[in-house]
Amino acid sequence: MLSVLSYGRLVARAVIGGLSQTDGRDYSLVTASCGFGKDFRKGILKKGMCYGDDACFIARHRSADVLGVADGVGGWRDYGVDPSQFSGTLMKTCERLVKEGRFVPSNPVGVLTSSYYELLQNKVPLLGSSTACIVILDRQSHRLHTANLGDSGFLLVRGGEVVHRSDEQQHYFNTPFQLSIAPPGAEGAVLSDSPDAADSSSFDVQLGDIILTATDGLFDNMPDYMILQELKKLKNTNYESIQQTARSIAEQAHVLAYDPNYMSPFAQFACDNGLNVRGGKPDDITVLLSIVAEYTD
Fold this sequence. Notes:
The relative contact order is 0.17. It contains seven helices and 14 strands. It is of the alpha+beta class. Helix 2 packs across helix 3 (about 110-120). The strands form three sheets. Strands 2, 3, 4, 5, 6, 11 and 12 form a seven-stranded antiparallel sheet that branches.
């Protein structure tokens, strides 16, 4: 038989649990960005929200907060094509569609698909390829919806531990899934994946959760445990603290990328594929760092 005290505790837990499940507050993301182009030694934005051939966006709508990163495929430069044009235009198009309300918060693949097909139908020819990762926080449902195509991605950190992360998509070593637009007549000769091939996930978030969205320039140079160490520097949820921590993470990844004696995650992956590689991987680095907070106008 339950004692009065034990019964009271059970009731209290039920009430608290019920409140947590029916939290009427809207949530939002407080987000800061930082990055480095591999040809730069400082975090410099190139032509809008672009770091080198990487691009990103941060958009707010009345129903959701939406983030995105894209990594332009550098091989196009050999054919006289600026790789940042594709990734930058893709992210700008995603941002515009979100701000116009032309999206469904629970369908990040839809944002990617609509943006990509708009680029395909553009009267001004656009060539190139890029990976892409879209993250959407539905303010009312408190659910995070994600879509990741390629080797960019996200981490969700709660209580100092990674509780969710994106799955990397590779055709083979160092060849990620990617959206592409090829020259007329060369479509079959250029690697191109459908937006529907993106890995999708949805899960609940809590106030104080940390979401880190980044291109492979971060993940190829910093393992999770190093990222978690940097996130411990995040002292509060104000923008200035988030910005400082985002910069700290991007700077450390940038330094490690040029360390020839460092066994980076990329080098380890190369060794696992039979290649004798050591050192960091010089690359563009883009970091979006977000904290789930109570929504305020």
